[in-house]
Write a structure and sequence with these properties.
alpha/beta; about 270 residues; homodimer
């Protein structure tokens, strides 16, 4: 992989602020960043937008909106307001998309939860179209169905995209979440222009904490080269975000983590 | 759920031997057990068979054969020999099926691994047919794809069953592994006679150890009543095995664990 395709997701260096995320990237000629919203909130939206513009870095995505299934718990109004704010933030910082983590299974019903998600993404898509912001729904690993995302497979995502049929709504492919599913990589050639984001890390064991056990590229069992070939071969022209949520790597100095990420990225 | 449908899987009381598994079940009028093979090996096959016959308990399954993808690592001969032994053991103890955990993703290829599994299950099915033993392939949670089972969904299992088309080969539905997938429960009505086993526990968080973080029925988010209705409504007439692999419950006295399991089973 060419360094020109790399983006540094802020969760890889959890705890680092926007200024340091920019510095860590620029120092290594990484051309793009992907901040989570807390980094933007910490410095304020307009200041964050100025910092990013003056850095010359691209923003591969803003992480994240979503959590639509809170609606089923009577929280719908607040959830949609916050998602509209996230769209506005993505616009202000020039993000190429807003990543949506769609919310956990609610009412013990995976199918019912997907229906809620489909309707909510459809509603948000109309707002995003007016704002000129792209939305990327992200299937998460089934290990996270109970607390993060009832949307777990590429097939479920493409079903929702087909139902919504909006030019601003596509999919974010994170290999950590979908590597196990042969249908996922087989679906990539047909997705083509609907791929709005591509995230890389690796699958390692044991799982100690379902949200913080990811591996650095090359340390696990995912066919990263095969995935990169598939995604870029399908015509995706965007960045590959390095998003390694890992208690192990969070315990290391950010410089070491990013140096390692660059080395492993180039080796894919 | 009626106690007449309950079976106690030995992994719920890990560390307990066959004699105690029998005693724990009989003392509570649980009509069936499901021993893992280590319990049989510890007392010897013929002695184990006599103990079980004289107990009057049914054996809902023997756990487990499988691990076929070791074949891809040059280990095929030994793997198939051991699986034939497992079939023989299932016959000797009168198990209603031999559960197959089919083996992890090998060569970084989920699809290639499923192909290996399909061929191996087909080969073992011929041996099982001659032995008069039923095989139950079990889709495992995608969290276990790297170390236990490339077979992760009910759909993948039904594809394999359709390809093999053997009267002695069916599926084991463990709700812990497939609860997140709306297609899984939707497929149950069409499975009918192909369901050879039904396992219950619950999905709880956090995951601390991907093999030992299950919850007791009622402590998690799985629609256990819905699953029981679906499986028994489809015509399944067998036992529901309580299989709770849990570091938490393993730290408790076996009597407390089984008392709790009975109480929660009846409450489904």
């Amino acid at each position: 992989m060419d360094l020109g395709r790399m983006s540094l997701n802020s969760m890889t260096v959890k705890g680092v602020g926007l200024a340091d995320l920019i510095r860590l990237s620029k120092d290594r000629d990484i051309p793009a960043i992907a901040p989570w919203r807390d980094l933007i909130a910490d410095v304020g939206l307009s200041h964050a937008a100025r910092m990013i513009r003056s850095s010359g870095l691209r923003v591969s995505s803003l992480c994240r909106g979503g959590m639509f299934t809170h609606e089923a718990n009577g929280d719908g109004q607040r959830s949609m307001q916050d998602n509209r704010r996230a769209v506005d933030e993505a616009y202000e910082i020039g993000a190429e998309c807003l990543v949506l983590v769609c919310g956990p299974v609610t009412h013990r019903s995976p199918r019912g939860s997907l229906d809620i998600i489909r309707d909510a993404v459809g509603e948000l898509s109309e707002y995003a179209l007016r704002a000129g912001v792209r939305l990327a729904i992200e299937p998460l690993h089934p290990m996270l169905a109970a607390n993060r995302s009832a949307l777990c497979t590429v097939r479920q995502a493409t079903d929702i995209l087909a139902s919504i049929d909006s030019p601003v709504t596509g999919i974010c492919i994170d290999v950590y979440h979908v590597w196990w599913d042969p249908e996922a990589i087989e679906a990539i050639p047909d997705l083509a222009d609907a791929i709005f984001g591509f995230h890389v890390s690796d699958w390692t064991l044991p799982i100690n904490g379902e949200l913080e056990s990811r591996g650095m590229m090359g340390d696990g069992c995912i066919d990263l080269r095969g995935w990169a070939d598939a995604v870029y071969g399908a015509g995706y022209g965007g960045f590959a975000e390095v998003e390694v949520l890992s208690a192990h790597w969070w315990s290391m100095p950010p410089e070491v983590v990013v140096d390692t990420a660059v080395e492993r990225f180039l080796a894919i």
